[in-house]
Amino acid sequence: MNQAVVNVQNVHKVFGKKNENQFHALKGVSFDIQKGEFVGIMGPSGAGKTTLLNVVSTLDKPTDGTIEIAGTNITSMKQGQLADFRSEQLGFIFQDFNLLENLSIYENIALPLSLQGVPSRKIKPSVVEVAKKLGIEAILEKYPVTVSGGQKQRAAAARALVHEPAIILADEPTGALDSKSAKSMMEAMLHLNENHGVSIMLVTHDPLSASYCERILFIQDGALYKEIHRDGNRNEFHHQILDVLAEFAD
Amino acid sequence: MLLKLSFSSMRKMFKDYLVLLFGLTISIAIFYMFETLAQNKAFLESNAMISSIVFIFHVGTFILAFITLFYIFYATSFMLSMRQKELGMYMTLGAKKHKVAQLMFFETFFIGIISLVVGVIVGVGFAQGIAGLLMDQLDFSGEGFHALYKSSVITTVIFYVALFLLTSIVNAIKISSKSVLDLLHAEEKHDQVKAKGGRTILGVIFAVILIGAGYYAMFNMAQLAQFGVILAAITITLGTYLMFISLLPYLMKKVKGIRTLNEKGINSFTFAQLRFRMGNLTKVLGTVAMLVALGLGAMTAGLSFYNNVELQASMFHGNDVTIHQPTEKDIQALNNMNTTEENTYHYKVDDNGVYFLKKDLLDHPPLIKQFNPETLEMPEPKRVATDLPDAQYSNSGAEGMKNIPDPWSTALSTELRADFQMFGDRDIFIVDQAHYQKVTTAEQKVVVARVADFMAYLPQLEKIEKRQQQLAASYTGEPGLEMAGGSKFADYMAYKGIASGTIFMGFFLGVAFLMMMASVLMFKLLSSASADTHRYSMLRKIGVRKSLLVKSIYKELFLLFLFPGLVGLVHVLVGMQMFSFILVEPYTKIWLPISIFIVIYGVYYWLTVQMYKRIVLPREA
User: Fold this and answer.
1) CB distance B189–A145 less than 8 Å?
2) Residue of chain B minimizing CA distance to A92
3) Host domain of residue A228
4) A151 occurs within a structural domain
5) What is the predicted ipTM?
6) Using one digit for the tens of pLDDT, what is the confidence trace for B17-29?
7) Residue span of the signal peptide, if any (chain A) (predicted)?
8) Region at B399 (left for phi over 0; alpha for psi -120 to 50; beta for the rest)
9) For B200-211, what is each residue's pLDDT tens digit?
């Protein structure tokens, strides 16, 4: 089932106007993410990780190149269409959770479904099901401020997942978590990937989090620098990642 | 050092402070405007139709002070919320708690004093501008009104200095009672909406009882008099606040509980925003409701006094215009009017009397109105039906004659204007043809007419009235004597002269209150909007169409505007009962002030949405 969920072709992103001080954030990046794959994006600060995530997530437009997600070319779509596309095909997990603090956890998770006009009676089973997958059924009626960071991030993951998007885009999901919560969050994501076939693109600078991925793309100065695959166990992969990161430091 | 730091950061947050200053300034300006009237006893007493007007203004001052108290506390606590993160940081860096509390105290007080100075100046300007405009429109000289009124300035300054001292102390205490961590993380806290069942029900019951008592007082204002005014002022103000504090959050919770509604589209977010807002802004919404009630109430009262002028003028007259010995110009003017009835009566005048021809009167009996001062109801016009069997009647009990029977004497004096003011001390007679022939002077005629719209012909009627006055002067021999009444037009002018002071006050205050309402709401909006920005940007990220977000904003703000507007409107509708013992029909043309209000409120709603959208929605390429 080698089917690309994400296909990035020669993408450039330039900030700043012509004749002004331009900054080339992405310089012809190309890669694929297959369906059911768990791919990590790593690189030092300023390498272009966030820019890459922004263009893949349709929040920003590439200056040049094409991006296809689930067979749709998103580079030529209009703002309104893009919003619809995001709400149907993409799931987001952010570093700072981005839950709406005036909605309960349940309402937060249900929001993407409500937005797609799913009738109320069908929403509840979906929310409960996804909450179970992430082990947060007990806190559904609580408000974000009253739960822990780890629980918040699981809630965010549940929200990203509830409408069964083509891919989940995670931006430093463990960045604001303590190591224990981070570990359990990554295990939950791995579980989703392995047992439910969820495709995930993870942007992180944390080698431990990255070691849960199957494949990692390293970028530096706006271009693909290296790609590594996990062949052995997670521990070995972790070391492999640290080795590549050490190359950056040199 | 800290002071320097805080000043520099205040400079940075200049925009936010501008909003705060604006809000405070308007509040002070309006308070001052109100006081220019309230404290000017001489002006009030000589210009109002209501004898206890000074007292009513005292009650008004009380209500306004109460509202202001809420408003100022809200505004200054907004300032606290703006500053606490930074002050928390100073504390982490080693600033002492009492220093920071001191700083907060001085900042609050400083802002207060600046706005007080600006507010009083703006208030004088407003008072001058609005009063000038209104006096112009109403043809009202407004003697004795001073835009810059010393004792009002003093009252305003004392009141606000006390208020700012109080709020500064409260802010300082609030800061020092919080831990450093609380301050640092203040922004992340969300205000939990508490809607405890038992207390809510108790609150609602109390609110209903209070408002009910206030309404009862307004219905029975004639009996309760001053006590009624005080009762209504206290109970309705408290009841309104209580209702917004208890009922609204509870209602919102219930609405949110309806799953099918809540889970439709972006509703869950819209409702959550509303619930969050209403929980936070109950007091502001209560304030807005009260200001709407006061502003709209003052305008409606003013307008109904204005309408009342015509009603009062037509209370005694079945006909709209009476022309003795019409000239060419009079006939032309009358022909140009849309008349619904026109009757002509012949008479003769000699040195002793005025003789009306009986046949004319009986052939075309005029419409008259008989006003009953006890019921105070608008009398319906009735046609005189009393027969006149005798050959002669007089109004002075002349020898061998009966007195003119009552409906006819009313008809002659008020409709045909055969009275002292027209004919001096001549007697008035009704005589048959035979006796009429015996009077040797020339025959004259008087035209009496009803027109379709009295108010539409005021300029023509004024000219006719002038010529009638000249005629009257030739009979009474006193050219300088102005006719104070007699015709409907003369009555109208007389009543208008008395009422325009009251109308002026109504509109002056109406405009002031509605302006304050606008500033309160705008303040609410701008002070909380920036906190919402991240929510909207997040929604946009997960793929909510911009149009949907805009719709949500429209809906949310609509409901926020709706509740206080409705409550205020109901207060006004019931409140107009208060005037039923001085106004003939307090509800006449009430649609007019209500429409004016709806238009102003609607425009304001629209503007609010636009500004809010600009702050909150993420900008897109």
Assistant:
1) yes
2) B542
3) 4-94+165-249
4) no
5) 0.81
6) 777 788 788 888 8
7) none
8) beta
9) 788 888 888 999
